[in-house]
């Protein structure tokens, strides 16, 4: 043995030991270790690898490290991140730690290198040791088939004792402490004994495991995987002398004693527990019954939240959470009043209908907070399977309760507030009718004994306060709609959006982005510009996003530029939100022939659109462009038929429709347009183009037309009037039957506009045209 003294940089390893001739990858993240690698690379690439006694120590000293380690050569370095490296090393010699120097910024060590192994064994003993190791290896490979057969073949051919011992120490799956023991053993005979002891122990452990598995296999069928696992646990406990203190069936019975439920439910659960106990030898059935019993025990049969009804507190919470929405608040307070008087009161089934982003879902959360009840949400968007509502029958693989029963279980009480979100997005297919399943859920006469296919016991839903939300009623079947109390949540006016932004959205976004009120301010004029030119919606969802954009950019300014506060005004708004995203076509500046401003409803609120008509020489063709839907095409045809019937009354030549072509166009042809409210608009534009009489630029209109010229009522009037107000329209023509809708609106919606009610086309023409068409002399 030659003793060689060296001074080398040190890396402390956690949970691993590297032996000579081992090639290993490992990651380095500690600063001292990275600096040690850099120092080694500047020298001869040698480094001393020591293993920590306790892997949790972050900054080890000499007492935390083993005395023996390995001198290794660095073969490759890969940078993973700023603070992490992957290093490949090859162990060369074992070495003893003589002195550890805690220098900055790395550890250094004085070591004694052992380049030879102590070997005081004669050749006969060596041959015997080699044969014994080959026998152990053969036995180990038989017991452990995962061990590489190619590696076994190479080791069986090795006759050099030293190489065989070192290769086995390197390749066997040892723990790092066992490998450290091999490293510290310089004497070959002692190293052989350590290795032989480890291999003998491993073979015995594998044999014990196989004996346990053999005992299990005698009792059960190979395909019953779950049962095999249970029997393995049982045999292991028997071998260790342990025993179960309480069986699953006993635990279920203990839970049943504490369950709040009627006798019918308890009797059913007790029968299922008895079945569970008797099916312990049938793993597949046992698992099904277990899941069923656990579900029944977790249902809130007679458990309810205590009523804490306070009218003033509820009103205060509703006012805090939402601006406007008076109808919704009024209905909730009415329900609470009845609850206070009767002590019970029938839970209403409300359906909030309105455009996206108007706060329908958040209203349900506020109601739950106002009533101090648990809140659960069920999303019905895209649900097509009736079993999602009623549950699956237990006979099916993977059966589970329906969403209603699962939501009740999650709530933990039988009287929560349950939100049925996007009820209009549910659909039907061959798996059943979702809407029909909801009929029983939402019918107060039936839902006191709602039957879920999985639970098979009546579930009381009569005390659940259901709140449904929808964007439109057109896709909801009439029988289901009849069971709900529909409350419209309409588009917000600019004034309402201003209040919502200032009172709710801005404080919320400031809190989310870690700012303080004193650090950011948005002027009213800037907020008004955001509402008009950076969002186009009925609700306030995009408005909240834009405010969030401003808060994020302001937070960055405060951090990077160390600003104390950021003020956002009209002039600086483009810096935070970019260029304006939306522009509105304002009223035309002059009266024109054949151009009429119409009003339309969209899912994001109301818009104004121009209808243009040209008359040109031809052979009586009637052309429609602008990607119009079937309803609008029919309205146009009804309008032209009405005009042709008026030829005798107004100064229109008899052969006009045979010698002239009429072309109707609605701009933005890439956008599909449809709806029953453009009839009067197209008819007015055609009459203007045919007679040559200009249409007043300050007039907009909405309404459907019949063949006889009557004006029919339309929907979405609030959104349309808001759009007209933004476009600075002075006069709006609406059907006379929509008068009640206007009277129910807040005056601020139509403030500054004249509302003209039309019963027939003649009323529309009197308002819209510069002058009425001249009548023939015969008239």
| Number of DSSP helical runs | 28
Helix content: 40-55%
Question: Main β-sheet: number of strands, strand sense, barrel status?
Answer: 7 strands, mixed
Compute the number of structural domains: 6
Which overall shape is indicated by the principal axes computed on the Cα atoms? elongated
Structural class: alpha/beta
The CATH class of the largest domain is identified as Alpha Beta
Query: What's the CATH H-level superfamily name of the largest domain?
Result: P-loop containing nucleotide triphosphate hydrolases
Describe the strand arrangement of the main beta sheet, using strand numbers.
Answer: 18-19-17-16-20-23-24
The whole-number mean of residue pLDDT values reads 83
**Poorly predicted runs:** none
Give the termini separation: 133 Å
* Radius of gyration from the alpha-carbon trace, in angstroms: 42 Å
CATH architecture of the largest domain: 3-Layer(aba) Sandwich
User: What is the CATH topology descriptor of the largest domain?
Assistant: Rossmann fold
Strand content: 15-25%
Instruction: Report the count of strand segments.
Output: 24
Catalytic activity: Hydrolysis of proteins in presence of ATP
Domain Lon proteolytic: 590-771
Keywords: ATP-binding, Coiled coil, Cytoplasm, Hydrolase, Nucleotide-binding, Protease, Serine protease, Stress response
Organism: Frisingicoccus caecimuris
Explain what the structure shows.
- With 779 residues, the protein is α/β, with parallel strands linked by helices.
- It folds into 6 domains: 3-114, LON domain-like (Archaeosine Trna-guanine Transglycosylase, Chain: A, domain 4, Roll), CATH 2.30.130; 123-212, Methane Monooxygenase Hydroxylase, Chain G, domain 1, CATH 1.20.58; 248-298; 311-488, Rossmann fold, CATH 3.40.50.300; 494-577, Helicase, Ruva Protein, domain 3, CATH 1.10.8.60; 595-768, 2-Layer Sandwich (Ribosomal Protein S5, domain 2).
- Helix content is 43%, strand content 19%.
- It contains 28 helices and 24 strands.
- Strands 18-19-17-16-20-23-24 form a 7-stranded mixed β-sheet.
- Helix 22 packs across helix 24.
- The model has no long low-confidence stretch (mean pLDDT 83).
- Residues 590-771 form the Lon proteolytic domain.
- Belongs to the peptidase S16 family.
- Keywords: ATP-binding, Coiled coil, Cytoplasm, Hydrolase, Nucleotide-binding, Protease, Serine protease, Stress response.
